[in-house]
Structure prediction request, 295 residues.
Amino acid sequence: MSDNHNNDTSLRERWTARLSTTLLVLINGLILSSAALAAPAEQDVRATLTYARAADLVIGSPAVATVEVRTATQLRPDRAPDLPPGRARFFVEADTTGLIRGNDVVAKRIGFLLDGPDDKTSRTRLRKRTFLIFGKVGPQVDQFQLASSTALVDWSAANEALVRKVISEILAPDAPPVITGISSAFHVPGAILGEGESQIFLDTSNGTPISLSIIRRPDEQPQFSASLGEIVDNAASLPAPDTPLWYRLACGLPDALPARALRGLEPVDADRAQRDYHAFQQALAPCARAGHPVL
Prediction:
């Protein structure tokens, strides 16, 4: 009896150990599977489209939509005589899956032209892909004209969210206007060596003034600020990246102060104002606005 009891106990212990090992393997497998499924979502968090590029596209495009490409047909060379060697023009048919911006009616199935490399894989690389397209509706509701050859961006939740954010900010009634030039600049030296302030006043498309301020003090980093108005706001600061004012300044400021803006200044003060202007430009986050073709 005792031997049978011991055998039963030993058998139960072995089955318990095997069951625990099996459960551990299953749990580990589920954890690895969950991580694998989560990986694409994590990769989709960051937009591949930059704020500046999105702003350029939105400003130049009365219509913005999401589409899924159905077919891409390469046109004969005689129908695209303006293309350089190695390039081809495709007629793309796509299903409209959403209209993000635009007052015109857009057909469910639309067609548009797209330029890309003249190779055998271009057409297949387009099919079944979902894109954000920027441009305008053509004479017919089933026609669409891209704003440029790079006005086609791979769709992702992050890219669409960025485009919607840019639309709401850049097209807002109180959004900073386009910078058209620099009206004046001056520099005031401080009471001690190394101290001084430069102020620069910008011209804009709607007449709303924008002013820049650069303050220097000995043994301190320069203080930069931008204000919407003729009076410099001492509480203002350098615009944060990926904001409307940053976009207008980083992507729209002239390379240097024009001579007419420095008229009347002593040469040494004109040089300091120019130095401070360049320092302000360098302090801004760079304007990354280059577009990348999808083909």
Summary: The radius of gyration is 30 Å.
